[in-house]
Design goal:
single chain; 399 residues; alpha/beta; Rossmann fold; 2 domains; 6-stranded parallel sheet; 13 strands; 14% strand
Length: 399
Amino acid sequence: MGTAVYLGTPAHGHVNPTLALTVELVKRGERVVYFATEEFRAKIERTGAVYRSYGEALKTESAVFENVFSVAEVALTLAVELLPSIVERVAAEKPDYLLHDALAVWGKLTGRRLGLPAVSTFPYFPTSARKGSGAHRFDLEILRMLAVGFPCVIRCLRLMKRLRREYGRRGGFADIFANLEPLNLVFTSQYFQPYANTFDERYKFVGPQLASRSEFEQFPLESFEGKSVIYISMGTIFNEGTRFYQECFQALGGLNHQIVLSVGDKIDIASLGRIPGNFIVRNRVPQLQILGRADLFITHGGLNSATEGLYYGVPLVVIPQGADQLLVACRVHQLGAGVYLNRKKATPKRLRETVLRVLADASIRRNCITIGDSFRAAGGHERAADEVLRFARRRNGVA
């Protein structure tokens, strides 16, 4: 039995994709110590891992995640805050190897300082050094984000200089989002990853790591019997748009479809006003079970959410809210798995027309099934665990 330390990035879109891998490592006899923040304690402990707290981590608002440069500032600031204590705390666990999120700058620097075999995990698309993002529209959006987020860039440069001086960090801006190791697990398939053939053998496309989640209230799944189901969720960060939810009522109310709307914990459902009869509105829902029965998914385009829909062959209407979601939307469009809608142009009329058009297009459904098949063929959490253990044992000289 070996001991692994997992240094996660404390955000739902980064922790959730690692849970199935953590369960699998524990199942195979590994002791896994997982560092995160208190809101993730329960779900980490349910995997069988040992939870360790980062302590008072940086508090962020959802607006931070609308701009990749503000995300970079968060990652660098967390590194500066955590590194003085995290190296010593990780060493105290006597790990045989380390895993860390690709955004966890502090993870890579901790592994290097302690001389540990380390694995990086990508819950988002890595960018090809030769080809870029693979989406011209996203590259243009990055330029817009640069103009808006220039003050963040200046602060980032200061933080990068400090980390280089105090911890020997090397690399530029792109490396903040790609803290690479000799082994890098990418939680998607080669088919879905843009320019997958440009990545070398350090990258293993192991597919989505789906794990059932129990932190939701009881839900009447039996009410779906014989009905066409449309599911709407803006994820865990961009879910405070009361106006958008009301526009969904206007766009889709009265359709001969069962609409399920998940609004997150920050919304008082009563504040949304009159809810159409064909809507079920909840703060939390069993997303995987609903997607297993859905005919359409309206999503913000986080890679995890989009992946979960496509895993079940569900067509997507993607309304990106920030960060890398436009890149996911572009990839969905490129592969004919759904439609991208600009959030500023997603009027009730356009949303209704788009939903009906996607539902009527059988080719979109077929393309989604192809992507879902590629996810299952990639191996999932079992292959991910195989790769981790093979790497750790080889690096530690164990046959």
